[in-house]
Amino acid sequence: MTRLAVRALLAVVFWPALFFFWFLGPFVFLLLSTTSSEVCPRLETRAEFLAAANGALPMLAVQNLAYAVPILCLVLWERLLPEPARARHIVTCVKLFAVSVVIGALWAYGSSLMCDGYGLPFFSPLWQMTSYLPIVSFVINVPLYVLTFSLGRAFSTRDDIAEDGAVRRQDSP
């Protein structure tokens, strides 16, 4: 396959993944959450509650794997078309994504440990601090989304098109 075909294939994977996983995914995973208001009243013991909270961990793993698709596309694009300036931005994306995954997992797991069905805390009040993590996640995700979008746009744009839209002719050797 030529480089242009591989770039096009990555773009076909990158853009739908970015739209569906990053922009629509949080709503879907919120609907699939196992510790909803219907589950909490049915839990009576600490062991049942922990089992329900731990049951959410596979969903978190699947969610994070789905969210990693656009980042993986950026890494593959960089391997295909190495450029030092973009490489630094991709490393920044990977770091922001890793921090976002950890914060998201802490928030999802921590918020699932908040109720016991009777309003009594099973766990330390420290878990109640996880209610502030969505704000931190938002502060991290906005630059991550902007940087990922701009890198995706830069990688998926053809090199032979000038800024004014004119196609430059490339002489073949």
Protein architecture, described:
It is a single chain. This protein has 173 residues and is mainly alpha-helical. The chain has one domain. Helix content is 67%, strand content 0%. It contains 5 helices and no strands. Helix 1 (3-31) packs antiparallel against helix 3 (57-80), helix 3 (57-80) runs antiparallel to helix 4 (84-112) and helix 4 (84-112) packs antiparallel against helix 5 (133-156). The radius of gyration is 21 Å and the shape is elongated. The protein starts with a helix and ends in a 17-residue tail after the last helix. The mean pLDDT is 76.
Summary of the model, kept short:
The chain contains 5 helices and no strands. The protein has 173 residues and is mostly helical. It has one domain (3-43, 54-156).
**Secondary structure: helix percent:** 55-70%
Number of domains: 1
For the termini, the CA-CA separation is 19 Å
The SS-based structural class is mainly alpha
Per DSSP, the total helix count is 5
Task: Please tell me the overall pLDDT.
Answer: 76
SSE order, as H and E? HHHHH
Main beta sheet: strand number and arrangement? Answer: none
- Any low-confidence stretches, pLDDT <50, length ≥5? none
Count the E strands.
0
Beta-strand percent range: under 5%
> Globular, elongated, flat, extended or rod-shaped: what is the shape?
elongated
Radius of gyration: 21 Å
Transmembrane segments: 12-32, 52-77, 89-109, 129-148
Keywords: Membrane, Transmembrane, Transmembrane helix
